[in-house]
Sequence to fold (323 residues):
Amino acid sequence: MTANRSYSTSNPSDLPTRPSPTPVTVLGLGPMGRALAAALLAAGHPVTVWNRTPGRADDLAARGAVPAASAAGAVAAAPLTLLCVRDDAAVRAVLGAAGPALRGRTLVNATSVGPEQARATADWAGANGVRLLNAAVLSPVSTIGGPAAVIVCSGEEQVFRAHRPVLDALAGTVNHLGADPGRAAVYDTALLDLFWTTVHGCLHAFALARAEGVRAAELAPYAQGLPRMLPALLDEWARSADEGRHPGDRSTVASGASGLAHVARTARARGLDTGVLDAALALTGRAVAAGHGPAGVSVLVETIAGAAAAPVPATVPADTATG
Ligand SMILES: NC(=O)c1ccc[n+]([C@@H]2O[C@H](COP(=O)([O-])OP(=O)(O)OC[C@H]3O[C@@H](n4cnc5c(N)ncnc54)[C@H](OP(=O)(O)O)[C@@H]3O)[C@@H](O)[C@H]2O)c1
Fold:
């Protein structure tokens, strides 16, 4: 279910109304936890905050947040707790201390975790009388509370519906992805996969250019063209991946492998780290060896999944697909 907000300004009754103030507790005051707490305060909700290391609540307290001395004390102050800490180990540590206080209340875990970890937290919540919604913040801190921020949730839809007015204060788009408590984490993890491999690509390109005497700032304007191509490519590859058809009419794995080899050779000659490039080369090499050279690059989704030995998609001409 989607919960994107859109309002017609021609009808005053369509204008967003402030939800009634709902006390919320925020556990974890790193950059994201602080941004979430600030957005809740800006929307008029009474906010209680706690952080493992004291002293991170000063700004928020100046804006009206109430710092609590313990996680359990903070949880007791509100029917709804938002947890946003580093990782699943931190979630376990906080729940270990605050778990009993959460009984009968709602927890929204907005920590980035893996799907299995999210499902394990749901099991823990079920066994401890806690209503749980797993959330993934898909946007950077600077967007939180504004229209560009995106948060996805999974778990019981009833819990999502009950707290949606509060969640709406955090992001312009708040979507419920279904009852599987791990589903939001699947989206989060897959998008982090995309993000970090892209980050690596950007920084590796800067290192390669610098090794050849080109400053990153000189290259950057030319690199800007690539992200502009991505929306169309993403849709095309998504269609190919879902349909299992990978036409090589515009670019092929064989051609991509050759370009990748050229990048790796240049980087190696300059003594740069080529670990990720070598891994990508090995992957494309496996695809070519399995006969996918003439297929479109989207066929790598099958190679990554370990399906390189699967029949070559029908869109690849039979005479070239066997080599
Ligand atoms: N920053 C972003 O732009 C962004 C965007 C999307 C999603 N996220 C996700 O949001 C979550 C929080 O990120 P963040 O940017 O706020 O910073 P972070 O550095 O990932 O997390 C810092 C917070 O985690 C707490 N923490 C770490 N280990 C703990 C433990 N064992 N017990 C209790 N608390 C512990 C820290 O407490 P102390 O202060 O005591 O160390 C602090 O409150 C992460 O899962 C991150 O992936 C962040």
